[in-house]
From TrEMBL:
It comes from the Eukaryota. It comes from Staphylotrichum longicolle. SUPFAM superfamilies: Clavaminate synthase-like. The keyword Metal-binding applies. This is TauD/TfdA-like domain-containing protein. Coiled coil: none annotated. Keywords: Dioxygenase, Iron, Metal-binding, Oxidoreductase. The keyword rRNA-binding does not apply.
Length: 380
């Protein structure tokens, strides 16, 4: 999988020219061929790389899975109900908690997410909203059945079904990130691009985009493939009061069309008709009350009511501010057994495609949807 101009996901950028040739030979549209998006021999361990550890999590793209538009639903924010002394999530004496930076990122060892009571899950939602991204080490999450993992994630909201990404057979609620063993397409990518960084908040085009999000590692390269996160609430706080005040009341459009087109152009799927939604540029978190910048270069298109040059300039400023703010970012290193939980409402993230030895990288994401973004008035 090479990083894309849109959200990094499992579309593996097959060699389009080769696919077209193959399709012409078979007299079928090349897009029908693109389902074989990894080398099954390599995934089985027959080509010099180790076998996929979780083959039941390998991506499939089911063209028969199409869905009607998402219906609005009432989101229950469990983070609001949490005991913020975290007695269930972070019991004293048994759990080690290391903050990666002052504003964003924490590493936790010594608690098994899969055993949390509902009170513990409420605490999890709140702790993640406060810390923005938390890496839980030594988890058994990947070894649960896929249904058990989904049941756990479903506590936090309605499962989002991604419009284009690969999923384990029969489980479209799981979004897979997979770069197959022996896949060296990254070389082609870097022939034309200087960096794989692509900041985004996941599927911000939805009317009710996801909140508490789970990403767990299945297979990883020896080194590389870390994930970067930025604290969009701290990014808001760093702005001058005058500038913050001006941003309040503005809305931006977020579009799913480009991601859908990208998928179709590469022979991928489209599970739902693409949507465009407007969201406030500054949104408020329902549990913490924090305000955060909510525009991202992957899905945001323009600021409503501004002229194109004005909108482009303001969005570029906000994207640069988030991207250059290394003093409110965290870099999460994956270890075997890590589950990373982030709050997609107050963070952005980027995959880093920096390993070039053809080692497999395979992760699964469970992403419950949350409330429709709302804003609360500017406070000086
Ligand atoms: O591969 C990664 O590190 C992150 C991919 C991503 O953007 C996601 O899972 O939402
Ligand atoms: Fe993402």
């Amino acid at each position: 999988m090479a990083p894309s101009a849109v959200e990094v996901e499992t579309v593996q950028v097959p060699d389009i020219a080769a696919l077209k040739l193959k399709a012409a030979a078979l007299n079928s549209p090349y897009k029908e061929l693109a389902a074989s998006k990894f080398d099954s021999d390599a995934e089985a361990g027959l080509k010099g790389h180790k076998a996929a550890k979780y083959p039941h999590y390998l991506p499939t793209w089911d063209r028969t899975q199409t869905y009607p538009p998402l219906e609005p639903f009432e989101h229950v924010e469990h983070g609001k109900d949490a005991d913020t002394s975290y007695p269930n999530l972070l019991p004293q004496g048994t759990v080690s908690v290391t903050h990666l930076t002052p504003s964003i990122g924490t590493e936790v060892r010594g608690i098994q997410l899969s055993t949390l009571s509902n009170a513990g899950k409420d605490e999890l939602a709140r702790f993640v909203a406060e810390r923005k991204v938390v890496a839980f080490r030594d988890q058994d999450f990947a070894d649960l059945s896929i249904q058990e993992a989904l049941d756990f994630g479903g506590y936090f909201g309605r499962h989002h079904i991604h419009p284009t990404s690969g999923a384990p057979e029969g489980y479209p609620e799981i979004h897979l990130v997979h770069r197959g063993a022996g896949d060296n397409s990254v070389d082609k990518f870097f022939a034309n691009r200087t960096s794989s960084v692509a900041w985004h908040s996941d599927v911000s085009y939805e009317q009710q985009p996801p909140g508490t999000t789970f990403l767990y590692i299945l297979d990883k390269p020896e080194t590389g493939g870390d994930t970067l996160f930025v604290d969009a609430a701290e990014a808001y706080n760093r702005l001058s009061p005058a500038f913050r005040e001006r941003l309040h009341g503005l809305k931006a459009t977020h579009s799913a069309h480009e991601q859908a087109n990208y998928s179709l152009a590469r022979g991928g799927i489209q599970r739902r008709e693409p949507v465009i939604n407007e969201h406030p540029i500054i949104r408020t978190h329902p549990a913490t009350g924090e305000k955060a910048i909510y525009v991202n270069p992957q899905f945001t298109r323009d600021i409503v009511g501004l002229k194109k040059e004005e909108s482009d300039a303001l969005l570029k400023f906000l994207y640069d501010h988030l991207a250059y703010g290394a003093d409110f970012q965290a870099r999460v290193k994956w270890e075997e057994g890590t589950v990373v939980v982030w709050d997609n409402r107050v963070t952005q993230h980027s995959a880093l495609v920096d390993w070039k030895n053809g080692q497999r990288r395979h992760l699964a994401r469970i992403q419950p949807q949350a409330e429709r973004p709302f804003e609360t008035p500017f406070e000086g």
